[in-house]
Amino acid sequence: MSYPVFAVTVDLVVLTVRDGALHVLLVQRGCEPYLGQWALPGGFVHEDEDLTTAARRELGEETGLDGPAGHLEQLGSYGDPDRDPRGRVVTVAYLALLPDLPSPTAGTDAAAAEWAPIGRRGLAFDHDRILADGVERARSKLEYTPLAAAFCPPEFTIGALRGVYEAVWGGPLDPRNFHRKATTTPGFVEPTGRSTEGEPGRPARLYKRGKATRLNPPMSR
């Protein structure tokens, strides 16, 4: 009995919030196929590594970023027979939610790398679909889990946390209502006992991510 032969790749939907808007990490391909087109970072899995190790390696090789220091989870697998012109290639996509990081530096087979606002279309391969799936997963995660804190530094204000929700969900939220929900939902955030310093206006209390894995009740858009 013969078995089909195909390659396995990993692709990463790396999301962060910059300047109040949701951004995705993209690389410009420096080789064929799709030379010069923008794509999600990723590449082939080596024979001696597991999928998560491959995802972390590709992130560093193509962008120069260490990490991810935030949240990383497997998003899904994509295996349409014609998704890659090089042959039969199945990719396993990962979703990473990160706090704001420095600008990436292209490496290996990437000609350039940048944080791009969500909305760019015409990505290489089937990366438009993978990106859309990743953004929708992130939006859902923020509704039912405390993972919004993955976009924040270890200590943050409730206002900064609200800014994450507004950026990911794409619309304003009532500040008082959000503050009440964030501070009364069990396990969502925990006060650090410290406040902001050296900033205009009244000092704001600092919080850290709570220990809950699921929000009850969920945050509403």
Task: Provide an overview of this structure.
This protein is an alpha+beta fold and 221 residues long. It is built from four helices and nine strands. The chain has helices spanning 51-63, 127-144, 158-169, 175-184; strands at 7-18, 21-29, 38-39, 42-44, 71-78, 89-97, 110-117, 189-195, 205-209. The strands form two sheets. Strands 1, 2, 3, 4, 5, 6 and 7 form a seven-stranded mixed β-sheet that branches. It has a two-stranded antiparallel sheet with strand order 8-9. A hairpin with an 8-residue loop joins strand 2 (21-29) and strand 3. The longest helix has 18 residues, at 127-144. The chain is elongated. The mean pLDDT is 90.
Average pLDDT score = 90
Structural class: alpha+beta
- What does the main sheet amount to? 7 strands, mixed
Low-pLDDT runs of 5+ residues are none
Oligomer: single chain
Count the DSSP helices. Answer: 4
- Overall 3D form: elongated
Into which percentage range does the β-strand content fall? 25-35%
* Span of the ends, CA to CA: 53 Å
